[in-house]
Write a structure and sequence with these properties.
The chain is an alpha/beta fold and 394 residues long. It has 2 domains: 28-152 and 292-302 and 313-360, Rossmann fold (3-Layer(aba) Sandwich); 154-280 and 367-379, Response regulator (Rossmann fold, 3-Layer(aba) Sandwich). The chain is 43% helix and 19% strand. It has helices spanning 3-27, 46-62, 86-98, 111-124, 154-167, 181-196, 215-223, 235-248, 264-270, 293-304, 312-330, 334-343, and strands at residues 30-36, 66-68, 71-73, 75-81, 104-105, 128-129, 146-147, 172-178, 200-207, 228-232, 254-257, 278-280, 346-348, 351-353, 355-356, 359-360, 367-371, 374-379. The strands form 7 sheets. Strands 9-8-10-11 form a 4-stranded parallel beta sheet, with helices on both faces. Strands 4-1-5 form a 3-stranded parallel beta sheet, sandwiched between helices. A hairpin with a 2-residue loop joins strand 2 (66-68) and strand 3 (71-73). Helix 5 (154-167) crosses helix 6, helix 7 (215-223) crosses helix 8 (235-248) and helix 11 crosses helix 12. The longest helix is centred in the N-terminal third of the chain and has 25 residues, at 3-27. The protein is globular, with a radius of gyration of 24 Å. The chain starts with a helix and ends in a 15-residue tail after the last strand.
Length: 394
């Protein structure tokens, strides 16, 4: 066999080997890591987020895999229970980066956990799109490796809620608040804004996160006959608030519970009792301006036999849409990915999202109301899906 023929065969073999390596690389899964509060104080909230992650992974893999700069690869999750402890989340995210060597990261549940892992992301220059985090403290996070899609920031919630109450002719309000940071931040902005809008604050009380009985507190609220009752509550105390407000026959045309009414388990637990409860959120499957919203809700219901959480599940899925669109452009290169997320406008189930610094600057701060088992946007008018209804019965 001649030299040139051998050379040609060698070149062909080398090319075939490269092609085989490319095929093998394309078949390798993209490993995506996260921690979640599967046990502990916040475990009740975990399914809303984990379900969004699992649905997205299933959908992407069914479509051939994640588009990594033009090459489709299957998705594989690497996840751990942080036991509702932010310190555990810090250790887990360091492990995911340094030992598990995951390709991408997605977020844990809740503001304290996002704030805890943000320095880890900066230290290792590893970008992550956050989701279930909302705090004015987010703006103190060094920009560059974490972003927050929500518009539910306390210094925006306070003024918007006060304007909402003013428009509904609320003259007096009772405010009860969990002592956890998110509730307290909202309270600090809400109470002064109520005064500016001419709404009298008839009750302004705090309670502990592990409260077991609200009877005395709600009896005090009822004695003032307020036009609005605002419970700045977390999931477990939202369930308690609703049950005991019904038992006491609390009468107020405007009743709000902060976090929890968007859970499918809340509506399953309370049925018609939950009708016309107002809660925090800026997404509804019924907003026709967002063509991706209804298909997402339908797919979620088909998989889990319940409606998605209009706050946490929607935010979690949004964060994955943003990551997916960024990876299609930038691949898995961390700096290219960071630059893409920081500069691009993304199409999500909640409409367009664009970041300035760490914050989404497009989505308006909104409020939802349960109406006939549907989560309807009732504020602001720009994204409203239904008019507000007074709560007339439990």
């Amino acid at each position: 066999m001649g030299f040139y023929k051998l050379l040609r065969l060698g070149v062909a073999a080398a090319a075939a080997a490269v092609m085989m390596m490319d095929v093998a690389r394309a078949a390798d899964p993209v490993r995506i890591g996260y921690s979640m509060s599967l046990t502990g104080l916040f475990a009740q909230a975990a399914p809303s987020q984990v379900n969004a992650y699992e649905l997205w992974k299933e959908q992407v893999n069914a479509a051939g895999g994640l588009d990594v700069a033009g090459v489709k690869r299957p998705i594989e999750f690497v996840s751990y229970d942080d036991q509702s402890n932010p310190a555990n989340a810090v250790r887990i995210y360091e492990k995911l980066i340094t030992e598990d060597k995951v390709d991408l990261l997605i977020a844990p549940w809740g503001t304290p956990f996002h704030l805890a892992v943000a320095p880890v992301l900066n230290r290792y220059k590893f970008p992550m799109v956050g989701n279930t985090a909302a705090s004015v403290q987010l703006r103190n996070v060094a920009p560059g490796y974490i972003w927050f899609p929500t518009s539910a920031i306390p210094d925006q919630i306070g003024p918007e809620l006060a304007k909402f109450l003013k428009e509904k002719n609320v003259k007096s309000a009772a405010v009860i608040a969990n002592v956890l940071p998110f509730s307290q931040e909202i309270r600090s902005f809400l109470v002064p804004e109520l005064a500016k809008q001419g709404v009298q604050v008839a009750v302004n009380e705090n309670y502990p996160p592990d409260i077991k009985d609200m009877t005395a507190l709600l009896s005090k609220v009822a004695s003032t006959s307020p036009d609005a009752v605002i419970a700045l509550s977390y999931p477990s105390d939202t369930f308690l608030f609703t049950r005991q407000a019904k038992e006491l026959g609390l009468k107020s045309p405007f009743v709000m519970a902060l976090v929890g009414p968007t859970f499918a388990s809340y509506q399953a637990a309370f049925g018609a009792t939950a009708n016309n409860i107002v809660t925090l959120g800026h997404w509804s499957a019924n907003q026709k301006k967002w063509p991706r919203a209804k298909p997402f809700a339908d797919a979620y219901k088909a998989k889990f036999n319940e409606n998605p959480d209009a706050l946490d599940t929607a935010l979690s899925y949004m964060s994955l849409e943003i990551l997916q669109q960024a990876v299609a452009v930038a691949g898995l290169d961390k700096e290219k990915l960071r630059a893409t997320i920081a500069s691009k406008t993304f199409d999500t189930i909640n409409g367009p999202v664009k970041f300035e610094g760490v914050q989404n600057v497009v989505t308006p701060t909104g409020f939802l109301q349960i109406q006939d088992s549907e989560m309807e946007l009732v504020w602001p008018d720009s994204i409203k899906t239904k008019d507000f209804r007074p709560k007339t019965a439990w």
